[in-house]
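Ligand: 4'-deoxy-4'-aminopyridoxal-5'-phosphate. Inputs:
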Amino acid sequence: MISDRQLFLRHLAQTSDHPMMLEIERAAGIYLFDIQGNKYIDLISGINVSNVGHLHQKVVLAIEEQLKHYMHLMVYGEFIQSPQVSYARLLTEHLPEKLSSVYFTNSGTEATEGAMKLAKRVTGRTEFISFFKSYHGHTQGALSVMGDEYWKQAYRPLLPDTRLLPFNDFKAIELITEDTAAVIIEPIQAEAGVILPQAGYLSKIRGRCDDMGVLLIFDEIQTGMGRTGTLFFFEQQGVVPDILLLAKSFGGGLPLGAFISSHQNMTALTHDPVLGHLTTFGGNALCCASGKAAMEVLLKYDLMAEIKGKQEIFNHWLKHKRIKQFRVAGLLMALEFYDERFNKEVIKKCIENGLIVDWFLFAPECMRIAPPLTITQEEINIACKILLRSIETVSNQG
Ligand code: PMP
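Predicted complex:
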């Protein structure tokens, strides 16, 4: 009999020579169970997706309830679909006035595409400014503003009129000019290995964008939905973007993204041409029901309030001579080692020991730690002990 493992390699397009190849049979809360019956702690939430854990009962119930009504009815923007309406309402109740209009997409990269198109329409300009080591997705518009040439070079030509600035460089902000349509930035650079903005940096960019009539796009696809201790990271900075991007945990485990702006900006998509951005499945009813239920879980159980305490437990444990730096933003964390090889060995060992961790695209020497926000203090203790044991074993191997 041919195993699923063989069929996976034969029939699923591969994107690397060394996929993780875990065959998970079931997931619940922070745990994954493979077909051999091994249990793993998911310390990366499927890359920042399962913020309320896997198969949260309230999310499952909301999906089941929606299934009694309909799945797909019509392409985006035509019918009044109550899961879309009620999620957009809940979301905008928790956002500033100028972020009152939600365009639902299928994914994060499509949210980036939509935001870039919107910025062109609103400003009548074409230049985009982004940052070294920024990640906004893998479609060609998003790739054009990605901050690392290695991932882009094989796909050129990409969009013209893009410019990269060094993150946290105050002086470079002057390169934002009246030619710029938008600045797109992750307020915390996630794939760069959790790089936080220096005090005053984002507000300086905000000021320059205002002076030059440039739209400011915050990509909170990893930092949004409670991950850093507030619903959105920008709340901690007192800086409001013109366009906000959400995805990943935004769908509660189902595929959903959004670009969010003012009602006035969004009207640009309604004319010349009409249907300025179009998607068949964006805002799918099940995905909206799921995302809204996950957001309600965040709010109801005030998971954000517990994050600081949980972060401190990680801080307390994760000390070792092989660790160069530990960067944290709530439960978005990067454990930096002195070299990539060591990191990858430790990751392998962790997985063998039942702990799912990973590396970052632009920081292969850093270990990604981003557990479901529902993780308990006791579970953090257990996870950290496994992690330290794995570091110790690899250290002893020389
Ligand atoms: N922006 C950021 C900050 C991301 O981390 C990602 C995904 N890693 C994306 C955009 C793209 O999202 P998706 O994979 O859903 O297209």
